[in-house]
Amino acid sequence: MLRITGGKVYDPSNGIDGAVKDICIADGKIVADLDGGSSIDATGMVVFPGGVDVHTHVAGGALNFARGLVPETQRAARKFLHTSDRRSGLGGMTPTTFATGYLYAGMGWTTVNEAAVPILSARHTHEELHDIPLVDKTSLVLMANNELVLDLLEAGEIERAKQVVSWLVWAAKGYGVKAVNPGGVTAWKWGKNANTLFGPVEGYQKVTPARIISSLAEIVDALKLPHPLHLHCNNLGVPGNVATTIETMKVIDGHRAHLAHIQFHAYGGDDWSSMRSESVRLADAFNAQKNLTADAGVVLFGNAVTITADGPWQHLLYELTGHKWGNLDVENETGCGIVPYVYKDRNLVNAVQWAVGLELLLLIDDPWRICLTTDHPNGAGFWRYPEIVQLLTDAEFRKAQVKKLPPKAQQRIVLADLDREYTMSEIAILTSAGPARTLGLSQKGHLGPGADADVTIYHEKPENGRFFTSPRYVIKGGQIVVEDGDVRATTAGREFVVHPACDDQIEGYLRELFPKVYTMSFENYPVEIERLRHAQIQPCL
Amino acid sequence: MDRILNGVRIADTFAEAFDMRAARVVITAASPKWARTAAECMTGFATSVIGCKVEAAIESELGPEETPDGRPGIGVLLFGFDTEGLTSRLVDRIGQTVLTCVTTACFDGLPQSPERVPVGGILRHFGDRFQSSKVLESQRYWRIPVMDGEFLIQETFGIQKAIGGGNFLILGANQDAALGAAEAAVDAMRRVRGVALPFPGGIVRSGSKVGARRYKKLIASTNDAYCPTLRGRPDTATELPDGVNAVLEIVVDGLERSSIERALAAGIGAACRPGIVEITAGNYGGKLGKHHFHLHQLPLD
Amino acid sequence: MPVTLVLKTPPPVPLEAELLTPDAIAERSRADICALPVNLGKRRMRLDDFFDVDGERSDEIEIRGDASRVKWIGRGMTRGRMLIRGNGGMHLGSGMTGGAITVTGNVSDWLGAEMKGGTIRVQGNAGGQVGAAYRGSLNGMSDGTIVVQGSAGLEVGMRMKRGLIVVGGRVRDFAGLQMKGGTIVLAGGAELRTGAWMVRGTIVALSSISLLPTFAYACTYNPTFLNLYAKHIATLGWTIPFDAREGGYRRYTGDTCVPGKGEILVWTGF
Fold first, then answer.
1. Average pLDDT over chain A, rounded to whole?
2. At what angle do helices A279-288 and A348-363 cross, to 10 degrees?
3. For residues A189 and A147, what is the distance between their CA atoms, to the nearest angstrom?
4. Which of A36, B58, B212, C157 is most deeply buried (CB count within 10 A of its CB)?
5. CB-based burial, A207-229: b 16+ in 10 Å, e otherwise
């Protein structure tokens, strides 16, 4: 039992905007009031619901492949030494499992969504999620290049496709459906891509990226999954791709969808030398289409490792950098590409990318619909979120950074003209309340009675002008786990999964299909629920 | 007051010399003959910085222990007024006469000098991207593919302050005597390191004065005060004592004051012999050059 | 007066002793030297748990004993001299930038890996990855000199950028793998795939070696730059032939599959 008293509470879900009030915790939940228990004096501090990361890559085959590809960063990485209550680990751009939990919680984040899981290696993802301490997790299952599903869409069998999707989500013990470069990763198996929404996907006559997108959005809504279809649009990263993004938004119209890392999808220009920001155009379209949410995918200057299922895009990036790269094929399901990358402020394209992420965050008017992410580790390490918060809340500082960019880059962006400053309440929405609502985790992102007691308490006066850097306290499930940036207790987080309605008969269909298309036997394919640590089924809508 | 050395009067005067900048080039080849061939070609048409843009001459013959690659070599000195000009001369001359000469390699002869200029760094482009380099003991060497193998040249050459225009004049009884004395002087001076004699065979027969009396635009003209055929004319004042019928001048440039002093002393010592009346030196009243070499202060004998 | 460290008994598992450097020892008293931390597996221990320490405050260090399980000796050192009378372990002189190390016996893998300056001499044999890049690093040694009198293992000079490696005995596969510059002298022969993926740099083989088909023969000649190298290598106590009266070098350029502009020079003595 714990009472937090004297702090300024930011709980936008419940309309609390800096009021000094008590927050009471019992049995891991927020309660209205409390008798006895211990107390934290939070005078001079602000009280936030724990951070929620709606899109990150922290566990599984792709990430582990990336770890293997960059041993030189492991050597230089921050070392987490083994102590009596803490496991060992490495930081760097692709932190190891235990370190991931310490780093997220150390920053005040308490829930993370692993954004891309191939079903074939979902077991590996869950084993790594199992080992990430402190934070709660969800994971999204890759579906938009799954040939079992695409074959059914080709045959026009949308109902059976829905059953297969439902079965696959539960087999993978996932939380939602992820679509990455719909049709493009399938085409990559032929060495091609899918650059137009309405052209047939390589190997198919009728299936187009548009059809995949609209079908999956329809299926996700029909299955009433708490989180909408999570979509990494076609033509990621390519100059001029804003047109594809806006076209995609029209294709989805009528259904829910969450657009992933939209910064990478907001470019104008015809080629790398003319590439520019089209954030205004994208924000306008996004603001108008209220069925959509998104996460920012901000790029920050410095090291990154690009890890996506978007095989063809990763190959293009490899050709641009000329350094090492990795590419994986997942039979029948998806692909994966890894390219270590450094964003440089002297690089014209990188400078535009840096600006676009911030522009979108400032131009999108409803903070409930946009979430703070860097598509870690693609845009920047997640531990750099405090840098972005500073750029959003301090216009003068932000404009000073814009002036440091190459003059040519400054002509391609609008960031210097934007004066908006995020309020504390808007930051709480951006980093917690909004993503929790988008994920459909009603027990997260707020401090009202019944919520999970995930609370982060910061000093009100930021050090180095940067808020969030070192929380005074982080409370997870009612227990103080971090104090003064130091991990005090390592609890195990929970993993949320969904079990959507599914027609039993579909198993017969799949059981017959498997030996013809998969090298793994049907019996071995679904992940046993016992493999997940503290699995909890989140009800569908 | 006069001094006499071996019966020759040494005038109580000084040579006036100037600040210059110098480079030193070590040319090696498969044989001494080819190193010398390249060096002679490189130092051709380099008598006076006024007319030739550089003064250059062979400084020394180098044995295998003295060259970076252990092959026979020749040391060459070049003198100019400024670093930029010198750099251009190095690039032009080495590029046209050393690079082109069979079996040669080319190294910097002033490795301690902190001021460095690119020479191999520019000439490497002749390799048309087929060139490669090696770095050894913090020095970069370029290997330029050529038809007989590779031309090896150091990337940077040192430049240092130097002195140009040290001199003395041999006043002889006749041309033969003056020439014999001058040749002896040149032999002796060429054994001194750090100096070079830029004029043909080391000897100037056409000593000059600044400007001209009759041609307004002429920078230099014949030194009529020392021309024997003009003695006695009313329109000129001669400097020639009785008995002098031919005068020759030795001009020496050097890296240090001490090297020039040693060279002048060696040369004057060798020139003081029968048939020579006087040794004197050229100056401009001390107003133009800041380096003065007083003949009586030289380490003669 | 050098500081002397005598190994009491070889450790049962590798001992990690990064602080065995002149930099760490030069300003320390004997008591402080004894207390220098070393890691035996996951246990932090003291230097004098393993070594008898004599002397203090010197940048000359002598180590005696079979230290073949002592790792990281001389790591990152910038100055001073180390003499190992005996064997040394893995990562000897890794990342060093100055100073000199001499070993009378053998050493293990990763000798002088990613070093940036200084000199290492090994009278016995070395392991693999001499002067090499660690996995994932773009570059191996970027300057300095390594001389191994005996044999060496795999990937000698892998991804080296600059500097000089001389090996007297035979080296194993992949000497000069992905080399970017610098010079490797193989005085005692090599196994397979020498110079694979070479981009730049020079491998001088003083005896015939097996060559990849992607290396193209150019000519037989006497490159003048080897005269320079011969003089320099003579100061290390080694000779390489260069005189046209004694023979010439067959020049092979490659690795053409990269495409590389490196060279392998193979001596053909008369």
1. 95
2. 30
3. 11
4. C157
5. bbbbbbbbbbbbbbbbbebbbbb
List all chains that touch chain B, counting a touch as 3 or more CB pairs closer than 8 Å.
C
How much is the mean pLDDT over chain C?
Answer: 96
Alpha-carbon distances of B203 from A8, A357, B45, B253, C96, rounded to whole Å: 97, 78, 14, 13, 57
Give me A461's structure tokens.
């006066």
Using a CB–CB cutoff of 8 Å, tell me whether C181 touches chain B: yes
Partner-chain contact C42 A82, CB within 8 Å: yes
A143, A149 contact by CB (below 8 A): yes
Report the gap between the CA of C43 and the closest CA in chain A (Å). 11
Enumerate residues 14 to 53 of chain C having a beta carbon within 8 A of any beta carbon in chain A: 42
How many Cα atoms are found within 13 Å in the side-chain-facing hemisphere of B202? 23
Number of domains making up chain C: 1
- B134 in contact with C, Cβ within 8 Å: yes
* Total-model pTM: 0.86
Residue C167 near residue C188, CB atoms below 8 Å: yes
pLDDT in tens, C122-181: 999 999 999 999 999 999 999 999 999 999 999 999 999 999 999 999 999 999 999 999
The reply to whether C263 falls in a domain is yes
Question: Mind listing the pLDDT tens digit for each residue in A250-268?
Answer: 999 889 999 999 999 999 9
Question: Does the pLDDT of residue B55 top 80, yes or no?
Answer: yes
Spell out which residues of chain A touch residue C137, defining contact as CB-CB under 8 Å: 72
Tokens of B56: 């250059």
Helix axes A242-252, A209-222, angle to 10 degrees: 40
CA proximity to B105, closest of B123, B118, B88, B117: B123
A51-388+492-497 classified as CATH 3.40.1350: no
The burial of B225, by beta-carbon neighbours within 10 Å (0-12 exposed, 13-18 middle, 19 or more buried), is given as: middle
Mean pLDDT across the stretch C58-64?
97
A423: Cβ contacts below 8 Å, ≥ 6 apart: A393
Q: Residue C189: is its pLDDT beyond 80?
A: yes
Closest to B166 measured CA to CA, from B87, B86, B94, B77: B77
Where do we find the tokens 């079992």?
Answer: A148
Structure token digits, residue C33: 């030297």
Average pLDDT over residues A84-88: 89
The mean per-residue pLDDT over the stretch A267-295 comes to 97
Segment A186-207 shows an average pLDDT of 96
Chains near A (3 or more Cβ pairs under 8 Å): C
Measuring CA to CA, which residue among B56, B118, B44 is closest to residue B83? Answer: B118
Q: A273 burial class (0-12, 13-18, 19+ CB within 10 angstroms)? A: exposed
DSSP secondary structure letters along A365-417: S-GGGEE---TTTTSS-GGGHHHHHHHHH-HHHHHHHHHTS-HHHHTT--GGG
Contacts of residue C91, Cβ cutoff 8 Å, sequence gap at least 6: C71, C72, C73, C75, C109, C110, C111, C113
Rg of chain A over all Cα atoms, to the nearest angstrom: 22
Contact A72 C134 (CB under 8 A): yes
Which domain does C234 fall in, by range? 109-269
Residue B20 in contact with residue B278, Cβ under 8 Å?
no
Determine contact, residues A267/A302, Cβ cutoff 8 Å: no
Half-sphere exposure of A100 (CA within 13 A, CB side): 31
Asked if A69 and C135 come within 8 Å (Cβ–Cβ), the reply is no
- Give the end-to-end CA distance of chain C in Å, rounded to a whole number: 49
Helices (H) and strands (E) in chain B, counts: 6, 19
CATH architecture of B20-160: 2-Layer Sandwich (3.30)
For chain B, the domains span: 3-16+164-297, 20-160
- Whether C215 is in a domain gets the answer yes
d(CA A140, CA A120): 13
